[in-house]
Amino acid sequence: MPRSYPAGLLLPSDAYNIERHQVMGRRVAGLQLAKAITANLREDESLTLIGTNPTDLRALAADLPLPRKSQLLLSTRLDPQALTKLGCLHVPDPGLGHWCGLRSAQKGHSCSLTGVIHTLCSNGVSKALEELLTAPLYPWDALICTSRAGLQVVEAAIDGHHEALEKRFNCKLNKPKGPLLPLIPLAIDPAPYRWQGLHGSRAEQRLWARKQLGISADALVVAFVGRLSFHSKAHPQPIYRALAKLAASQHQEVLLLECGHIYNSAIGAAFDDLAIDYSPLKVQRLGGLEPASDKQKQVSLAAADLFCSLADNLQETFGLSLLEAMAAELPVLASDWSGYRDLVEAGVTGFLVPTADALKGAALDQLEREYRLGLIGYDRMVGLRSLAVCIDPSALFQALSRLQREPTRRQSMGVAGRERLERLFSADVVAGQYRCLWQELKEVREIAANKKPHLLQEPVRVPYGRLFASFASEGLELGPWQRPRDGTAAKALLGPMQKDFCEHWCGENLTPLVEWLDAIPNNQTFATGYLTDKFNSLNIPIEFQQALLACLLKLDIIQPVEVNNK
């Protein structure tokens, strides 16, 4: 019998699928985490993946690097019994308060919940962070923060909401002891950035890649890989201006190699117009309206002399593209912004360019007020907000000039960057940190179970059965029942008005249920337990059985005995 991995992963398609959805850091990170954990399964260990679409889930499982003698268990259902067996459920977002509903009316220590932060500035995420204070969460639950800056945002959100509640109720409130806020970075597998089909040194890879792209061997190539968006990633004007100035002051061709995804043609046109304004800088782009492929990303990084990303946007909390550049042994020139400062060791693996935020520390600005009230949209908010962030132009140009003049330093920084990546951010290292966290949460949970076996999880919200108790005349009777002589054929469950709903309850066992019901003789009497046993044998979840019974009554497929005898 395989041992169970200490957590199950909730992986809806939106959390990892970059073929169906826009390429975004959280999706790339979700896929990388699934690969890292799967690749590090131990012998005879099973990992449960939970998704909403069985086809997507099977396709994901087929792409994961499964070690020999380990296995993946796929599920499209979340139920309390399954969670108790898993011990921990990891969700791909910070909304732990939302997922607490899975433990409603269960023992609070029945399982742990863990989540992870990505973008932290949307209204939805802001509310989710505030819920961390009031939701029934415990020291065996955890919200994983991927950077120190992200951790500070989460702590500030909790502290701010705590202060607001104390003022609202005019009393001192104790903070709960959970969830924990561990610091674990995102990860990548560095192997794809050492070209498997290309032998030789980093310098030979560089020449080979430039030949593929038609780039001069003597040019200074600065790469940017990521989403090409001036309003939601990084405004390109600072790097365009600095590189144009560098090109004008040196007897060397300077090329900005952009590789990524442009969301629409208007954004693409804006980038094109800006490049024209900053001649003699040359700009070459891979990808665009059609997202760049992994191979194009690898070629871009192989061809480059250095990597530059000047993020200025509230959406950025980590910086996976910086790790990709480090994997390709490139020095990294980045803005001193958010999670970037955790990745770049200034002066060793690259340089950090100072940033200044006009709204730093502001109590509340009009832009934030308008967004929180829904008067302006999210894209406009982050775009306007990013324009209030300045990249130090003098420091940027000095760093570029230094890297341009010192090829040996570029090389040593690139090597140091790759070593730092493999030591701190590689998939194996991060997968190990996740395993340790989930094992520690299990131990904390077990201690709590021994100390407080009576501990129950309160419902997160008042349940519908209580909220709407006044709507119906009475509750459902418990039988006995009969298959009426003049009743409805059970195949009605397969009709267009019912089938989709009934499949939600029964899954693939709807047809066997119909066949079984139609085989019951007319007027045969049976107790509720008789139906319950059949439902159980068809693996119909217990939480759906009462609703399914009511549906059979509603459609007159079964009747109460007393009604049928009138």
Can you give a write-up of this model?
- The chain is of the alpha/beta class.
- It folds into three domains: 3-186 and 431-451, Rossmann fold (3-Layer(aba) Sandwich), CATH 3.40.50; 191-425, Glycogen Phosphorylase B (Rossmann fold, 3-Layer(aba) Sandwich), CATH 3.40.50; 472-564.
- The strands form four sheets. Strands 1, 2, 3, 4, 5, 6 and 7 form a seven-stranded parallel beta sheet that branches. It has a six-stranded parallel beta sheet with strand order 10-9-8-11-12-13, sandwiched between helices.
- Helix 5 (123-134) crosses helix 6 (148-169) and helix 8 (237-249) packs across helix 15 (393-405).
- The longest helix is centred in the C-terminal third of the chain and has 25 residues, at 427-451.
- The model has no long low-confidence stretch (mean pLDDT 91).
Describe the SSE topology.
Layout (H helix, E strand, L loop, with lengths): L2 E2 L3 E3 L14 H15 L5 E6 L3 H10 L7 E5 L4 H7 L1 E3 L5 H4 L12 E5 L6 H12 L7 E3 L3 H22 L32 H12 L6 E8 L9 H13 L4 E8 L3 H13 L4 E7 L5 H10 L2 E4 L10 H8 L4 E4 L4 H4 L6 E4 L1 E3 L8 H7 L5 H10 L1 E3 L1 H13 L1 H18 L2 H25 L12 H4 L13 E2 L16 H8 L3 H9 L6 E2 L1 H10 L4 H13 L4 E2 H4 L2
Parallel strand pairs: 1-3, 2-3, 2-5, 3-4, 5-6, 6-7, 8-9, 8-11, 9-10, 11-12, 12-13
Antiparallel strand pairs: 14-15, 16-17, 16-18
